[in-house]
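Table S2 (text version). Query chain:
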Amino acid sequence: MLLKKKRRNAAMIIKMTKYSFILLTGEKDGFLEQLQELGVVDITRSVKPVDQDSSDMLAKADRARKTLEFLESIDYTKDADYEAIAKATVNIEGDPVDFIEQCRTRIAELNAELTAAEKQLESRRPWGEYDRSALEGLRDLGYAIHYYCIDAKKFDQSWSESYPLQVVENDGKKVWFVTVVPADSAEYSLPVKEMNAPAGTYSECVSEINRIKAEIIGCKAGLLNAKDYIPAIKEARNSSLVDFDRYMADNAAAGAAEDMLTVFTGFAPVENDEALTEAFDKMGVLYIKEEAVQEDNPPIKLKNNWFTRQFEVFTEMYGMPVYTEFDPTPVVAPFYLLFFAMCMGDAGYGIILLLMGIMLNKGWMKIGMFDGLGNIIALLGAGTIAVGTILGTFFGISLYDAAWVPEWLKSCMIVGDVEIPGIGVLNIQMLLAMGIGIFHICLAMTVKAFCYTKRFGIKENIATWGWLLLIVGGVILALLGVGKILSPEAMKWAVIAVGGISALAIYVFNTPGRNPLINIGAGLWDTYNMATGILGDVLSYLRLFALGLAGGMLGQAFNNLALSVKSDSIITWLPFVLILVIGHLMNLLLSGLGAFVHPMRLTFMEYFKNAGYEGKGAAYNPLTTNKE
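Corresponding structure-token output:
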């Protein structure tokens, strides 16, 4: 790859340059290969298969991905036959992916056969060994052998007086026996349900089990040896994705001059303009370069600092911004961290998350689903430590009530209740959650007003500014009133000014040039939607308080339960420790799940909605020779 990516610092959507390439149709394959070598030009194309050939390419890459995931997860060190597996050598011929899939299928079949054989072994155990030829000789002489198994209490020894009967096994609970009578005997009758004859001897079943186990060992050894092919499979997968990318770019090309010419449209970051111009000039390709605009629907590449970049995954999950939109990640990052920490609400659990993130980064811990997430887990853990300390909870222990916590630290904690004149006594942490929610929504509306004005102009967003002034201005005036910063007279005129200007923007000038009566009707409808929506949105933030409170109470319950079984006897220490470890582990998992999901909901449903974020952009996906 000839072009290097520059280091990212600021938070923004990287500006793109649009390139239109015109070349002879016969030259397009070589041209696309050269673009892949450059590795920075995003050719407009579909990312989904459009025909059987592209579908096959993607399926081949997906097979390789699944095979890699399986190979990297293989660990037979705890297998009872590990030594035999490790010592065995298997030659792998042909496509290693085919070989691995065949081994996996065969192991599944063999495990099913092994289960059936082990059941068969148990059923043959009472019958033990017998001479198959002797039994066949009896049949040749005209005798029939009948096999039975009944409860020992139901077995009647007198049956042996009527028929030749032989007890084969009696374990005190059941009795296995056989009778031998003439095959043509019409008078033979025994009040016991007859069972099928054993399909073979006990030793034959043992031999079959050993054969199956040996084949399983061979297949597992083959899979273990196949780990040597991981680099080759990765290269094959990358090659399939590269071919797919090039094929899709070729498929998206527009023909001209009776298909003698081919036209490609591509985009690249403006920071690569100089290097690309030089490269295209050397290639001798005809191209037109111009600044990308929204109508071109250019791909989106985000530019964020190290901290914010860890949270880009949430922006990508919802959808990338369009070109003239804004990158929400700089706002998502600190608020998601804060929301997660409040939902966890326990500094002790934050320490565990921080250590887990560090160990994942250092490679000291391997958990497939968390690969590559060490940084964000460590950040979330650090935030939980800070917020959990402020909220006064450590592994379910109230730090504010603990004698060993210094007073200066207690003075930083937000705990207890507060009395609100005219309302009553409320929990201060609940008020904190509500306050954060109000600020978050006000911030979203502010972002919407500025960004929509930039995208669509002030004329189209007068109502948006009116609502912003009414809600944000109302919140500010309420705070000034509670703090008695403004005099009653000043407060009265401030309220009149904010209310009057907002009313004109919302009800009269919301759509300039339209019938005023229609504007008033539209404003009333917006008022209804805004009133019901904003109230529900603010109340949604109570989950920050509720989840943190629930986790703290559950942790405290496990502490009390553990203390209830502990006494001066050393024997009680084992259940004490087990209750603490298992209880807090369960609480950590439950709290972690809630702390992951609910902040995401507040971000996607409350913030993005009030910020007017659409997320309909396409991610920057350049043609490259490395798709890992």
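Notes on Table S2: Confidence is low (pLDDT under 50) at residues 1-10. The longest strand covers residues 16-24.
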